[in-house]
Design goal:
The chain is an alpha+beta fold and 350 residues long. It has three domains: 118 residues, Roll (Endonuclease I-creI); 104 residues, no CATH class; 92 residues, Roll (Endonuclease I-creI), CATH 3.10.28. It has a four-stranded antiparallel β-sheet. The longest helix is centred in the last third of the chain and has 17 residues.
Length: 350
């Protein structure tokens, strides 16, 4: 098993890391489309469904067929959708994308005017969700695909963002940012994961002073992380409590890769995770305990730069257990874990 992990570490540097993170198990996510919108969203701030014209035509034709005698389209459309008839027909003809809120209004109107039940309305709305339509802004820019399932790849990204991400919304500006000293980590691992999970190819920027950063100005992704996954940087989201052991493992791996450190000196060998929040690390300890990995701490630290806390694994057997059962998808930390494993084994066998 240890040899297979060493092979895994070596291959992380030369192969696509996505092949090393499994696609399963999948945890279905309930229809969250309405969670992506806000009551204060105007036209320019709305999130739009791409390529929904076929769905719109099907629903609209049924409404017209069952109400053609009493429906005055020129009045009905502006009164119910707050758009002109020409704009609405542009939705049906693929000339314009339809906002999530307008599509939902169409479903509710279909329910009312076609005498459908609430259950039928919910099924129709869920059908739209399950078609996995691309999302964009009004101008069809920033097209993204959002996950319908939680899987290990998404779990890894969530762990990294919780540990050391940056999520911001200000006016019409939206930011999902990951900073990292290793450009190789961003290029080989994190960028491909964003492509796989969200369908976006994020640029990499040189940070002022030190390191690099992935930055994505996507409202759809930001809203998904904040309003669906309930992600806040420096906090463990409640949704992790419902993760199976595999997804929990990759969430914790992502968190370790963002905030962890490996001390490879035999006499002071340790796996360390640092954070400014004591409560955050107490929650992390409990999550690791749930999958039978034991950290000690949190330990208090204070310097001229401020206060922070650490949790650690120092026992050699526990270190080897972490290496085998959790490991790392970080190009540098995976190497250091391998070095530490070899040092421990060499000293034990000498």
């Amino acid at each position: 098993m240890q040899r297979s992990y060493a092979a895994f570490v070596d291959s992380c540097i030369s192969e696509n890391i996505l092949e090393k993170i499994p696609d399963d198990p999948h945890i279905p996510i309930k229809n969250y489309l309405l969670d992506l919108i806000d009551d204060n969203d105007g036209i320019e701030k709305s999130i739009y469904l791409n390529d929904a014209s076929g769905i719109i035509q099907e629903i609209w034709e049924e409404i017209i067929q069952k109400n053609w005698r009493k429906l005055n389209v020129r009045k009905f459309i502006p009164e119910n959708f707050r758009v002109t008839p020409s704009s609405f027909y542009a939705y049906k003809n693929s000339r314009k994308n339809i906002s999530i809120s307008t599509m939902y209004k169409l479903i509710k109107i279909w329910q009312e005017f076609c005498n459908k039940s609430e259950e039928e309305s919910i099924r129709k709305w869920d059908d739209i969700f399950n078609k996995e339509l691309l999302l964009s802004t009004r101008s069809k820019c920033q097209k993204t695909s959002l996950p319908r399932y939680i899987d290990p790849k998404l779990s890894y990204l969530l762990g990294w963002i919780c540990g050391d991400g940056n999520l911001q919304e200000s006016g019409n500006h939206y930011l999902v940012k990951i900073s990292e000293k290793s450009r190789e980590q961003l290029e080989i691992i994190l960028r491909p994961l964003f492509v796989d999970v969200f369908g976006v190819f994020p640029p990499i920027f040189l940070r002022y002073g030190n390191g690099y950063a992935i930055q994505i100005g996507s409202k759809s992704i930001l809203r998904f992380l904040q309003k669906v996954m309930k992600i806040k940087v420096g906090q463990i989201p409640k949704i992790v409590d419902d993760f199976d052991p595999v997804n929990k493992k990759y969430f914790l791996m992502g968190l370790f890769d963002a905030e962890g450190y490996v001390n490879t000196t035999y006499s002071d060998s340790a796996i360390i995770i640092s954070q400014s929040s004591k409560f955050f690390l107490e929650t992390v300890i409990e999550l690791f305990r749930n999958i039978n990995i034991s950290f000690t701490g949190p330990q208090y630290h204070k310097t001229d730069l401020g206060i922070w806390y650490t949790i650690k694994i120092r026992k050699k057997l526990e270190i080897l257990k972490f290496i085998h059962e959790i490991g790392s998808c970080h190009v540098d930390k995976a190497k250091r874990l391998r070095i530490l494993r070899d040092i421990i084994e060499k000293n034990w066998n000498s």
